[in-house]
Amino acid sequence: METGAPGREAELEEILEYCNNLRQAPVPADDALPDGFTGTLGHFPVYFPEEIAHAAGLLPVGILGGGNKLELKHADAHMGSFICSICRSTSEMGLNGSLQPLKGFITHPICDAAKHLAGIWARNFPEQLAQILYLPQNPNTPGAVRYVAAEYQRLRGELERKSGQEATDEKLRASIQAYNRNRALLRELYAIRRDEPWKLSCTESYLLVRARTRIPCQAHNELLEAAIAGIRARKR
What we know:
By secondary structure, the chain is an alpha/beta fold. It has helices spanning 5-24, 50-55, 85-95, 112-124, 144-163, 169-195, 202-210, 217-232; strands at residues 39-43, 58-62, 102-107, 129-132. It has one domain (5-232): Rossmann fold (3-Layer(aba) Sandwich). Helix 4 (112-124) links the parallel strand 3 and strand 4.
């Protein structure tokens, strides 16, 4: 393998092309998942403990809505047209079959529309797990930690039943370790974007970050490690 600047740049371009393909790829079917995963779990990427799903053998798939090119043919029959585009286009993706491979979808009370989306999901997709993950409004209250722990344990049980795998403490520790490494790599990526923005464009950083919504955390760690090495080697 080439280790010079031209070789690193070529490898980086391959990584970015791969990330762009992931961005446009459908939700993977169960038989296309890596070993150890029995299905995929959709979630809004806001305050969601991906480690629990990962430990339970469900690949976390971040759902970011359908963008501005998705024609809404079904969603408006299920919710008001004044609802935000993210919730409406996510519902459209479910109703048009794009999210059919999911084992479930977890939403959060980040807004009234998102809070009630789980009910709409449960009625229209009874074969999928539809849950709301409630988090404390004030994390500084004395009972906040106990409340979050209870919610996480409840979610852990729901995901174990859906996946058929136990999220043991050992698996959870391994998942937490992998995700902590991922956060460290993302901080390193953000630092490059902040301190040396000429080496990393906004689009490139977006593609590298978004790739985690379609691949396991460990694979994303390897991808980021290779990408960061290529970015640092850039002569710009």
